[in-house]
Amino acid sequence: MGSDTRDKNMIIQGFRNRGVSKEVLELISDDADYGLTREQIARYADKNMDFAHMKICSKCLRNNYDDEVIKVIVADGLSISQMEMALEFYEKGVPIEAVKKITQSGEKAVTMKKLYEDSLAEGNKFEHDREPEYVTKIIKYLERMNVNLSNADKRFTEVEDVLRTLLDNNEGQQDFDRILKENQEKDVLLSEKQDEINKAYSQATENSREREVLRKENKKLREKISELEEKYSKKKKSDTEVIEVSKKESSEVDNLNRHIRIDGNNIERKETVNSRGAISIFTKLAIKTKSRRNLVKLVIEGELDKNQLIQIKSAIEKGLTESQLEEIINGRISAERMKEIIEIAELENSMNG
């Protein structure tokens, strides 16, 4: 990045931090591209004036007008129309003192313009009344000549030479006017191209800001995805630990059921000893003593398999009531059905508060 670009960006950023509007920033950007310094731009950007006033100040600065000229054109108390008219007068060659008198007259812009046109017409009339320069030169030349009939041919030849010289000078003036007009047309074309370049640069700057916003949003999204993946990983690990504990407790209940079936004479004794494994499941889950005995009895009598016991444990953890648990255990349904019923019961409990 070149130093000019860095300087321009610093100028724009400085005024952006002050909270100036978008259209003022665009004017500042154009003036910085044109080559105005930060101090020159501050002459209008640091003051409390409307945008139209700023544009007139900007044009004066671009034309490199003196401070005294700028003070007259944008004097306090003038309307925008009066300022524009004063600028137009000065650009057309009206002396600044005359511009100052017109603006201080207190007239509106339309009256100011008529005063200017009247004075211009008066000046043109004065110029028209004067003898053309070439006529004056001819008269002076003839006066210097001692005109007589004897050397008339020589005199007329000399007069013809003077007229031809003046005519050549007039053609040179026409060439100069033509070249000047062509140059002005090229200046207009160059100004239009510069405006197009400035607009393209502004659009590129806007696109760059949009890309930066999208980049930041994409970064936040990736961070959110990583956070969700980490939570999912922790939850998966926790579920695995729950399944392992359930398998262990299910094994204890399987041992209890197996001992119950060993011998009809020893059923009462085995039930008393091995029911402690099933009781431990409900003890860990903080089930009340009376409810715990009822649920243990239901588990033993229900002959539930390992997967069903896992679902019963899940139901207790999810806060299902004793009556809901009894219905699930007595229903003698598969573990898959248990899971669905437990989820429905949990939802119902949450809706009931």
UniProtKB/TrEMBL annotation:
Statement: the UniProt record of this protein carries the keyword Coiled coil: yes
Coiled-coil segments: 204-238
Domain of life, per UniProt, equals Bacteria
* Keyword set, alphabetical order: Coiled coil
Q: What is the name listed in the Swiss-Prot or TrEMBL entry for this protein?
A: Uncharacterized protein
Q: Which organism is it from?
A: Eubacterium ventriosum
The taxonomic lineage of its organism, from the top, reads:
Bacteria, Bacillati, Bacillota, Clostridia, Eubacteriales
